Automatic annotation (TrEMBL):
Protein source organism: Modestobacter roseus
Family classification: Belongs to the bacterial solute-binding protein 8 family.
Protein name, as recorded: Iron complex transport system substrate-binding protein
Keyword hit for Chaperone: no
GO annotation, cellular component aspect: outer membrane-bounded periplasmic space
PANTHER family: IRON III DICITRATE-BINDING PERIPLASMIC PROTEIN (PTHR30532), IRON(III) DICITRATE-BINDING PERIPLASMIC PROTEIN (PTHR30532:SF25)
Any GO BP: iron coordination entity transport
Keyword set, alphabetical order: Signal, Transport
Length: 314
């Protein structure tokens, strides 16, 4: 397992042998420590600091990398055998992260072959596999996916033995979200619409009950009426796409089917007639960053994109 970040501690006083002995004793104590971590499906007994972590969804992948840990294994999405492209920019080497199936179908044999000491997933994806995963290694399950990412972060941080880092990440993110919202003047007066094509014949308009919905809320933005929902998204047909209009509109596509569908949609007259499009306030975004990351890294990248838009508008 690689570490994206490291902490150096220094001190003075006492003899060199005593300092070395104390450090060795502290390291041994940490390695032997058994912690009980409460999670969505029960408790996990975790020994020391996990060094061989396997993650079974993109949000868990984003979170462990944010906490300075490179997992030994991770699932891929159904649309690609590659890990999200933004991860390399975050300092992770995708070649160090073995493939262990897809989100929909994790490969239990591949997971076991990696000899993990911790598995992270969530109840939205793998509740039915929990007992089998527990048989391989201590397994910590987050509550759902998407809008619960901030709730799950401290659970995963505790499992990794990095609770303080988890708290710091959340505080830094929330402070920055407020700062980015302020770049738009009165963000509560700016309705931000989110549109995603996934190749199903309908456009998904993402609501407040989604990962991207939480980031927009933390920045203080308003949402168009149809997207003021606790649901992850609502679907509209091409003939209803006008209901996606807003003061700002961000759109993306998932997979080849979504890309083809989005091309048809954005070339259509109803899309072209929307106010956001006509004003130049409809902005294409990277799907990995806005919809697959689902963690601190992804949230930070969304805030980067929003900052760029604010600068262009000023």
């Amino acid at each position: 397992m690689g570490l994206v970040a490291a902490v150096t501690v220094s001190g003075c006083g006492g003899s060199g042998s005593e300092t070395t002995g104390s450090a060795a004793g502290a390291a041994a104590s940490t390695a032997d420590e058994v912690r009980t971590v409460d999670h969505a499906l029960g408790e996990a007994e975790i020994s020391g600091t996990p060094e061989r972590v396997v993650v079974l969804d993109t949000g868990e992948l984003d979170t462990v990398l944010s906490l300075g840990v490179t997992p030994v294994g991770a699932v891929r999405t159904d649309a690609s055998t590659e890990l999200p492209g933004y991860l390399a920019d975050a300092g992770a080497d995708p070649d160090e992260i073995a493939e262990v199936g897809t989100i929909a179908e994790p490969n239990l044999e591949a997971i076991a072959a990696l000899d993990p000491d911790l598995i992270l997933s969530n109840t939205a994806r793998h509740t039915d596999l929990y007992d089998q995963l527990q048989g391989i290694a201590p397994t910590v399950m987050g509550e759902g996916v998407g809008e619960t990412w901030k709730q799950n972060l401290p659970v995963y941080a505790e499992a990794l033995g990095r609770p303080e880092e988890g708290e710091e990440l959340l505080t830094e993110y929330e402070d920055r979200a407020a700062e980015v919202g302020a770049l738009f003047g009165e963000p509560a007066e700016v309705e931000v619409s989110i549109v995603r094509s996934v190749g199903t014949g309908s456009a998904r308009l993402y609501g407040e009950g989604s990962f991207i919905g939480t980031v927009l809320a933390d920045a203080g933005f308003a949402r168009p009426e149809l997207q003021r929902t606790d649901e992850t998204f609502v679907e509209v047909g091409p003939e209803e796409i006008g209901r996606a209009d807003g003061d700002l509109l961000f759109y993306s596509a998932y997979g080849e089917g979504g890309e083809a569908e989005l091309a048809d949609l954005t070339n259509g007259g109803l899309w072209q007639s929307m106010g956001a499009v006509q004003r130049g306030d409809a902005v294409p975004v990277d799907d990995d960053r806005w919809f697959l990351a689902i963690g601190p890294l992804g949230a930070g990248l969304v805030l980067d994109d929003l900052t760029e838009v604010a600068q262009q508008r000023s």
